[in-house]
Amino acid sequence: MEASVISKTQGCKHNNIAEFLDWAHQHRLHAKDVLPASEVILCEYAAEFRGKLAGASVKAKLSAIKGWTIMKGYTWQGGDCLRKVLTGVERSAPPSSFRPEREPVKKSHLSILHAELDLSDTNGLDCCIAAAADLMFYSQLRAGEILPTNSSFSQYNTKFMPKISDLSKTNAAGLKRLFLPRTKTSQMRGDKVMVPVQKGSTNPIHSLDNHICVNKLRPSDPLFAYTDTKGIKRILTRTLFLRRCNTIWGRHNISRRTGHCF
């Protein structure tokens, strides 16, 4: 393969593209065969992973190559034949390529959180954590849809993460609606989710209202911002949220939960 194609990809963060170029080099393909790659070549590459990887993993590799091809100004050649090959790869995926099912978070786990978190008006962090846990559980959200990885206000992107004004007021039925700027399935279109009223201490309506009041949040603030013990406003991150929850649950012999478990 010509050096020009390889050099244009050096330093690229996407390992999937480098892997594809290595495969092409091993099969003695020329630059014109790779960029753009014909559907025959794409099918041959996808078929290499039959019985080795899960279908989703192979689709991710092809998606990276597609993005790279289009970015370079070429037309993507994948079509029905490639889709059929990917279906075959998915059906032949080895058992080792699948993760074991995650243990779910249960209502009893929320009750334990509420019993052990300090939900007084002096602990903004714990009030924030309780509200996030209740919302994720009852509205069936992933942690990544409402909690960022960075606690910095300057890094918080409201195009991706919700702010206070994205949460509606409680309506006549006692419900709220939350607009999510981006979800795993809707991506940039966003989506609206229902926040249902519940009986007992884990009612997400009450938890959210209490969190907003205790932390004195404004409409433009991140939905899960809080005031720390020094009076500084911070943003609740996925890491901090899950660490606090799992520390409490661990004392009750509950195995570790991830953000998807909600």
UniProtKB/TrEMBL annotation:
It comes from the Eukaryota. Keywords: DNA-binding. InterPro entries: DNA_brk_join_enz (IPR011010), Integrase_recombinase_N (IPR010998). The keyword DNA-binding applies. This is Uncharacterized protein. The lineage of its organism: Eukaryota, Fungi, Dikarya, Basidiomycota, Agaricomycotina.
